[in-house]
Specification:
By secondary structure, the chain is of the alpha+beta class. It folds into two domains: 75 residues, Arc Repressor Mutant, subunit A (Orthogonal Bundle), CATH 1.10.10.10; 175 residues, GAF domain (Beta-Lactamase, 2-Layer Sandwich), CATH 3.30.450.40. The protein is 45% helix and 15% strand. Strand 5 and strand 6 form a beta hairpin. Helix 3 crosses helix 4, helix 5 packs antiparallel against helix 9 and helix 6 crosses helix 8.
Length: 271
């Protein structure tokens, strides 16, 4: 086993046997077998009943499994349903938003991105690059800081208060330019001032020579699930362009939200 693990690590693939056992237990559940006894889990996974009991009890505590007190059978818990819903929403969001990204690039000639929240920093899950030779750097899958850029602060403004405070107080923020906010108190005031708006514009706080305009995206339950963004070199920016980009972003964000079931005008407010 140690040799096999070492070989996987050398190829850049890491395997933790304990996590592997958890996955084998979860994989035992299917549409045809939604409820299983401890003995069933042991037989199907090839793991001893003692180990299965320890793993299942831990998963039950975390909400990943639920055990019926009468039948003593296990079934998948609500936490897995919530995670599955998050995956589905991200896939659905990308499919719906991509045509809007394409149209925004055609209209503005600048780079358009789709950003979604993640505990360690917002993530770019889709982008269409500007056709111009000089453009902002954008990378699919790249994580962004919470304290710089338009989309991160816009998303942060609409997260539930408990989640927002956890992000604000978790770790010190890095300075990227002279305009970057690194103070927790100043960042809190900034994001709360954004809340209630359907766009956010910023220039030079992540990259000294770049601007960005973002609009929030809400789902059918009026929850923030992402932001759509257009960004480009500040040298191409003018007051007229700012106003035009803001209107384009507000429209795109509202249309994507509408397709996701968000009610028009139901912009979340409050602390």
């Amino acid at each position: 086993m140690a040799k096999r693990v070492k070989e996987r690590v050398e190829r850049g693939v890491y395997w933790l046997e304990g996590v592997g056992r958890v996955m084998r237990i979860l994989d035992c559940f299917t549409d045809g077998n939604p409820e299983l006894r401890l003995t069933d889990l042991s037989e199907r996974s090839g793991i001893t009943k003692t180990q299965v009991l320890r793993i299942a009890s831990t998963l039950e505590t975390g909400g990943y499994l639920h055990r019926d007190p009468e039948s003593r059978r296990y079934r998948l818990g609500m936490r897995l349903f919530q995670l599955g819903t998050a995956v589905h929403n991200s896939m659905n969001l990308r499919r719906i938003a991509h045509p809007y990204l394409q149209r925004l690039v055609e209209t503005t000639q600048e780079t358009a991105r789709l950003i979604v929240p993640h505990p360690s920093g917002p993530v770019c899950i889709d982008l269409v690059e500007s056709p111009k030779g000089i453009r902002v750097f954008a990378q699919l899958g790249a994580k962004m800081p919470w304290n710089a850029g338009t989309s991160p602060k816009l998303i942060l403004a609409y997260l539930p208060e408990e989640e927002r405070e956890r992000i604000l107080t978790r770790h010190p923020f890095k300075r990227y330019t002279a305009r970057t906010i690194v103070s927790v108190e100043k960042l809190r005031r900034e994001v709360l001032s954004i809340r209630g708006q359907d766009f956010y514009f910023c220039d030079g706080d992540l990259d000294e020579d770049a601007f960005g305009v973002s609009a929030p995206i809400f789902d059918h339950a009026d929850r923030i699930i992402g932001a759509i963004n257009v960004s480009g070199p500040s040298s191409r920016l003018s007051k007229a362009e700012v106003d035009r980009f803001i209107q384009l972003m507000r429209s795109a964000g509202a249309e994507i939200s509408r397709e996701l079931g968000h009610r028009a005008g139901a912009l979340p407010r409050g602390p």
